[in-house]
Amino acid sequence: QVQLVESGGGLVQPGRSLRLSCAASGFTLDYYTISWFRQAPGKEREGVACIGNGDGSTYYADPVKGRFTISRDKAKNTVYLQMNSLKPEDTAVYYCNARIFVNEYWGQGTQVTVSS
Question: Counting Cβ atoms within 10 Å, is residue 38 exposed (0-12), middle (13-18) or buried (19+)?
Answer without folding.
Answer: buried
